[in-house]
Amino acid sequence: MSSDAWLSASSQHFRPSTRTVPDSFAPPAFNGTNIDADTWLAHFRRYVEYRQLADRDITQIFPLFLKDSAIDWYDTLTADMKNDLDSLLGNFKAYFGKTELDYVFADETVFTRVQRPNEKARDYISQMQKLAKRVPHLEDEILRW
After folding, report:
1. Is 77 exposed, middle or buried (0-12, 13-18, 19+ CB in 10 A)?
2. Is residue 78 helix, strand or coil?
């Protein structure tokens, strides 16, 4: 067996190792109403990125984090949509997430948020930056100040 043939054959079974992380760091199960979908999805993305999961693995693990109306939604998707990570997560965000307009008219926005009593300045600035990121078409340059 030539070295090229061995490399070809062995690479078919090679899987890079994934990082492990305690279950307590995994996102909680999403049921469609228990948590803000955009916040949950951001946590899920950080979790799978840290674990170094391939797109195929992410699409397979995704439904394990869904329950109630969220898993009902998932069950209605086509196989193609379930197997394409961008389509799957995009559909999730479109169905459960807030629209840009929802963020503009939210109770607390970058335009209405004031520093709370005893709130540290750095915490207030961090919250303002987070709220500002939700404003549609806001340039990143503005967030640096």
Report:
1. middle
2. coil
Residue 24: pLDDT band (50, 70, 90) is confident
Strand-pair partners of 30: 66
- Look at residue 11 in the predicted model and tell me its pLDDT: 42
Q: In the beta sheet, which residues pair with residue 66?
A: 30
Torsion of CA 125, 89, 26, 52, to 10 degrees: -100
Rg (CA), the chain: 20
At residue 11, what are phi and psi to the nearest 5 degrees?
A: -70, -20
By CB neighbour count within 10 A (0-12 exposed, 13-18 middle, 19+ buried), where does 109 fall?
middle
User: What would the two tokens of residue 30 be?
Assistant: 């999403």
Cα–Cα distance between 121 and 62 in angstroms, integer? 37
The reported pTM is: 0.64
| Residue 3 pLDDT exceeds 50 | no
**Residues 72-98: pLDDT tens digits?**
999 999 999 999 999 999 999 999 987
